[in-house]
Amino acid sequence: MSGKKKNIVIINTVPVNGGDEALLMGTLQGIKDHVSNPQINVLCRDPILTRGNVKGVSFDWDWELVHRRNPERKSQSLFTIKKRIRAFLDKKLNVPFLNKYSVMLGTMAERRVYSILKNADLILSGAGSYLNDFYGYAGRMETLRFIDKRLKKPYIIFGQSVGPFWKQEGFPDLKELFEGSRFIHLREAVSLDHLKEIDFAKDHVQVTNDVAFYLVPSHALAPKGGDSVKNIILNFREWPYQPENEKNLEKATALCSFLINQGYQLTFLSTCQGIKGYIDDSLFANKIVAELDETQRESCHVIERKLSLRDFIKVLGEQDVYIGMRLHGAILSLLAGIPALNIGYEDKSKGVFSELGLDPYTFRYENNIEDWKQETTQFISDYNSYKGRIEDIRNKAFEKVTENFKFLEKTLNES
Q1: pTM exceeds 0.90
Q2: Which residues fall within 8 angstroms of residue 225, CB to CB, at 6 or more apart?
Q3: pLDDT of the residue at 41
Q4: Does the domain spanning 6-72+107-214+397-414 belong to CATH 3.40.50.1820?
Q5: Cα gap 34→81, rounded to integer Å
Q6: 3 state SS for the chain
Q7: Do the Cβ atoms of 400 and 352 come closer than 8 Å?
Q8: What is the pLDDT at residue 186?
Q9: CA 235 – CA 204 distance, rounded (Å)
Q10: What CATH number is given for 224-387 in this structure?
Q11: HSE-up (13 A, CA, CB side) for residue 198
Q12: Cα–Cα distance between 229 and 384 in angstroms, integer?
């Protein structure tokens, strides 16, 4: 490659979530390893909150959150006047909102993000799981349509789980979104099935693995010694999108009581906690502990603060096993060298674990409590055999996800 800087923009990130932070750090490292002289900008849901918690990265607003909006609440009266002028230009003079003259009337943040996207050589719709009917994707669609139709910039659906989709009225928009992508990197085959369900089957789709595994060389810890389980790290979350969520507190409490009665020490830690204004699973952990007997609570420790990525992995590595609902809690546990059992609330969990060859170590949160206990008992009994596979599992995942960055490098070379 030439010495000219390549401008890469990563959009749709939420790195205040520790799992998404791991995905972003893996993405940034992969770009730096495979692209000569990259200029990288990261757009996210809340750059103000994110800048205070994730250092060393240039963050700004996602386009759908800043276009014709004033997310920073600066000069609100002036913004309102300009907004009305833009509406007049659109309706009376046929000057659309995406016209450069209309954009000039936008906020400083909108003009800044417009410039970032306009100068991009390649845009990555960042790794994670946000294109599904649980969360909705209208805003993401707005941004990708703008990138494709207005700016005519190439974009890649990068390291994602997609679906499930059940709202058929949205299928045409989804197919447009996926069709416009230069390439689609999925982290598991279940997402490929979701694409087929909306009648989308193209050659520019590849299944690799979770981008957080690109952190293996820089962050992985050796599996710890010892041949028995004493200390268990857990997390549970509320999942409001399905009615079975109401039983999560009851089942989580019953499982913790079951484990404590067998002599295990429990520590609660989540990828989502300790940040005011964002989801905090430690609140749910404290509810669980409060439901236990007073003597059982003595076997519990809830970590409530947010940890840096390295400190998070270090704390995981001090435990023996992980049991939890957060998928990246499980993935980062593998990086920390400890076996992980994932209680899945989306089918992406089964998909990722299947790609890793760990099918027996994930189950659905809707299962009854006896299933939770049985799955956990079998997992703990497999402790030594599972631990012996971890280095091979994560090294293969690293090699697989490296394919994403090789394609990215090829795409930039051809542009």
Answers
A1: yes
A2: none
A3: 96
A4: no
A5: 46
A6: CCCCCEEEEEEEECCCCHHHHHHHHHHHHHHHHHCCCEEEEEEECCHHHHHCCCCCCCEEECHHHHCCCCCCCCCHHHHHHHHHHHHHHHHHCCCCCCCHHHHCCCCHHHHHHHHHHHCCCEEEECCEEEECCCCCCHHHHHHHHHHHHHCCCCEEEEEEEECCCCCHHHHHHHHHHHHHCCEEEECCHHHHHHHHHCCCCCCCEEECCCHHHHHHHHHCCCCCCCCCCCEEEEECCCCCCCHHHHHHHHHHHHHHHHHHHCCCEEEECCCCCCCCCCCCHHHHHHHHHHHCCHHHHCCEEECCCCCCHHHHHHHHHCCCEEEECCHHHHHHHHHCCCCEEEEECCHHHHHHHHHCCCHHHEEECCCCHHHHHHHHHHHHHCHHHHHCCHHHHHHHHHHHHHHHHHHHHHHHHHC
A7: no
A8: 97
A9: 36
A10: 3.40.50.2000
A11: 26
A12: 9
Please determine whether the domains at 6-72+107-214+397-414 and 224-387 fall in the same fold group of CATH: yes
Q: Domain boundaries in the chain?
A: 6-72+107-214+397-414, 224-387
40, two tokens = 């990288």
Spans in the chain with pLDDT lower than 50: 1
Q: What is the predicted pLDDT for the residue at 3?
A: 64
What pLDDT is attached to residue 216? 98
